């Protein structure tokens, strides 16, 4: 029985790769002139999907900017691409919503081309063809600069020195925003500056308002950053407000040595994390009638008391249930955990019909790449009053988990990198019944138009 189980597990892991190889071989073997070459189409695929990280000074371990650099790694590139481990965007195909903003997943035709190219011996192709050089942003450039320009404001944390090895550290400075009037946020990105990216585990921010006692009251969460996060885009029909004369509270977790590149030297000095914010040009009263917020939604009882235990070589599943007393739209979804989290999902349960709808699932989650899955606003799930969000996480403390540093350890809920967490960051637009009904009708009309081919 054990042998049969191992055989089944092995086949389940490699079967998608075998099928993709077979498909690409059939497609490209029909005509040898279709065999991909590096100078033909492969360089463009790699430049578009890989070189942003695999370049001099990038966060990836090797450079892939020309044929001489790519050729030795071709078999590994084929394996990683075919298994959809690279580019690093763990989001399940074919389950729930697939229309996402900032989606890093490679197109199926590009995957098939790389598989076929490596199967053919990774040919360079016509030497008279010079592949176009990739257009790469600066290593310090903001992710939204190409579309939105430079941020309207940049809010920096206070600097902190971090050793290259040692224990987890936390830092909670508070800094002024410098904003003198209420503004609606269009986009945000949190970015560790320079070498700080090697030691920043996460950096969460909240908006704080001074109170009469000389302290601060929390107005709302602002944004959340963890390793690999791209940023946040706020739909144009809502306002996430940054109030006048407010402050930003940084809640930063540093992990010396990081989970990515090892911190060089013995001390990284003056670590600074920056928050770039882009504003809508319109006055706050013109942006949208409804507001959006970002919150941490916990998945288990006893969260604050750390009543969460994963035994050695064990598996645990957590669930959370959340409902609203008004209609909402779910704008983005970002699971959060540490080294033992392996999968996560979000579903909606409709009590009136008993139906459960799958929204998103991530079955190969990794702590080194935290993605905020931003739904296309025209597809983002609309949740009626009383419907229930079902949030699920699965944890793997076994030796089969490639991210697990020690399967012999008991793992508890907590803030350290070696502990575990179980919550999701979800951006929600709060609607009233009239606007909810309007959005439902607008989507129904678009669907009918697509089905009938009408242009009216």
Rg, nearest Å: 24 Å
Low-confidence stretches: 1-27, 259-263
Number of domains: 3
CATH class of the largest domain: Mainly Beta
Known CATH architecture of the largest domain: Sandwich
What is the residue-averaged pLDDT?
A: 86
Large-scale geometry = globular
Q: What is the helix tally?
A: 8
CATH topology of the largest domain: Jelly Rolls
How would you characterize the largest beta sheet?
7 strands, mixed
| Quaternary class | single chain
Instruction: Indicate the structural class.
Output: alpha+beta
The number of distinct β-strands equals: 25
Percent of residues in helices: 10-25%
Q: Into which percentage range does the β-strand content fall?
A: 25-35%
Distance between the terminal alpha carbons, to the nearest Å?
Answer: 62 Å
């Amino acid at each position: 029985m054990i042998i049969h189980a191992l055989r089944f597990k092995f086949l389940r892991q490699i079967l998608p790769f075998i099928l993709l190889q077979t498909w690409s071989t059939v497609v490209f073997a029909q005509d040898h002139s279709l065999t991909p070459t590096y100078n033909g189409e492969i360089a463009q695929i790699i430049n578009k999907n890989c070189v942003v990280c695999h370049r001099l000074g990038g966060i990836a371990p090797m450079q892939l900017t020309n044929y001489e650099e790519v050729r030795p790694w071709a078999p590994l590139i084929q394996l990683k691409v075919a298994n959809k481990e690279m580019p690093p965007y763990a989001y399940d195909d074919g389950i729930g919503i697939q229309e996402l903003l900032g989606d890093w997943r490679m197109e199926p035709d590009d995957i098939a081309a790389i598989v076929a190219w490596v199967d053919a011996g990774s040919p360079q192709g016509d030497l008279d063809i010079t592949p176009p050089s990739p257009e790469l942003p600066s290593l310090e450039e903001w992710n939204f600069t190409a579309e939105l320009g430079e941020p309207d404001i940049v809010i920096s944390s206070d600097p902190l020195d971090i050793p290259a090895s040692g224990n987890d550290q936390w830092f909670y400075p508070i800094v002024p925003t410098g904003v003198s009037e209420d503004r609606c946020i269009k986009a945000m990105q949190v970015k560790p500056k320079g070498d700080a990216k090697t030691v920043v585990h996460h950096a969460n921010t909240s908006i704080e308002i001074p109170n009469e006692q000389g302290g601060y009251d929390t107005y709302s969460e602002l944004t959340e950053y963890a390793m690999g996060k791209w940023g946040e885009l706020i739909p144009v029909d809502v306002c996430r407000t940054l109030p006048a004369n407010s402050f930003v509270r940084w809640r930063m977790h540093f992990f010396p040595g990081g989970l990515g590149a090892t911190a060089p030297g013995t001390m990284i000095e003056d670590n600074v994390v920056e928050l770039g914010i882009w504003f809508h040009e319109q006055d706050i009263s013109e942006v949208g009638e409804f507001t959006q917020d970002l919150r941490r939604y916990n998945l288990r009882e006893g969260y604050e008391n750390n009543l969460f235990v994963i035994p050695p070589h064990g598996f645990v599943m957590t669930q959370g249930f959340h409902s609203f007393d008004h209609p909402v739209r779910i704008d983005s979804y970002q699971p959060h955990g540490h080294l033992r989290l392996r999968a996560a999902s979000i579903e909606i349960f409709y009590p009136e019909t008993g139906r459960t709808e799958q929204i998103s699932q991530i079955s190969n989650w990794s702590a080194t790449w935290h993605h905020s899955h931003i739904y296309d606003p025209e597809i983002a799930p609309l949740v009626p009053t009383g419907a229930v969000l079902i949030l699920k996480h699965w944890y793997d403390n076994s030796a089969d988990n490639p991210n697990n540093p020690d399967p012999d350890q008991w793992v508890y809920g907590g803030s350290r990198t070696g502990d575990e967490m179980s919550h999701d960051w979800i951006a929600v637009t709060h609607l009233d019944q009239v606007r909810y009904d309007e959005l439902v009708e607008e989507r129904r009309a678009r669907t009918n138009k697509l089905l009938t081919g009408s242009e009216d």
